[in-house]
Amino acid sequence: MDYRAVDGNLQESFRILARHGRSGELRDYDGTRIASAGVTFQMFNAAFLSSPVEDELDLRRRIAQCVVHFSARGLDWAFWVCEDWVRAGLRRRLRQIFRDHHMQLAVELPGMISERLPEPDRRLPRLEMRRVTGGSERNDFCAVGSVCFGVPLPWFCEVFANNAVWGEFASWVGYADGVPVSTAATVVGAGAIGLYNIATLPGYQRRGYGEAVMRHAVTEACREHGVERTILQSTSQGLRLYERLGYRKVTGVAVYAS
After folding, report:
1. What is the C-alpha separation between 75 and 43, in angstroms, rounded?
2. Which one, of 192, 224, 164, lies nearest residue 18 by Cα?
3. What global pTM score does this model have?
4. Alpha helices, DSSP H only, in 122-208?
5. Among 145, 200, 137, 144, which residue's Cα sits nearest to residue 172?
6. Is the pLDDT of residue 240 over 90?
């Protein structure tokens, strides 16, 4: 049942952003859960499965109720599907089923778990670590994320517009000689520390900055909450690093966007 930790923590991260979004909304339907920040960046207007899917008719019903929800609000949105909620024989049909509802596969992410991070096997660079509470650190966090994830800066800033989010979405920026070069954020939920927004500016990659900020974020979350298990959804670029750090894939997360 490790996939439930991945999916539960992922959903909690979106609930935090929705709770603090200016137009945020949380709603449960029969078999689906909405955690929408009500923003331009559709990935943060999110729907999730909340119970196992046994057949295609049931899945189509759930997608349709989310289509109605977001259409009524005039929002582009995304359905984040943890594959283990879906019966194995049905997974092969997911792309076509979502395509029938005008939803396209945006990305597939391996959901990974580590029970405890091992000690570093190399000397990591020294960075000045600043926790985001607003102000310049918030601007730097958004600027790094905008570049690394290819998202317009105003869209990224809109997601994190309310400074109240930083109390639950614990975020860090690493500075090299005063330059913001890397970020990481943690969310505690479903018995694990979730790692999000791990990013390093292109000109500073492959120097250990991302690992340094990630480890700092995990250490601080563990100290504050007493939890050691960590989860994340890896990009293809980060997969090799996370495997080296002892993460193992326990599920897959597919994101379908309107």
Report:
1. 11
2. 164
3. 0.96
4. 135-149, 153-159
5. 137
6. no
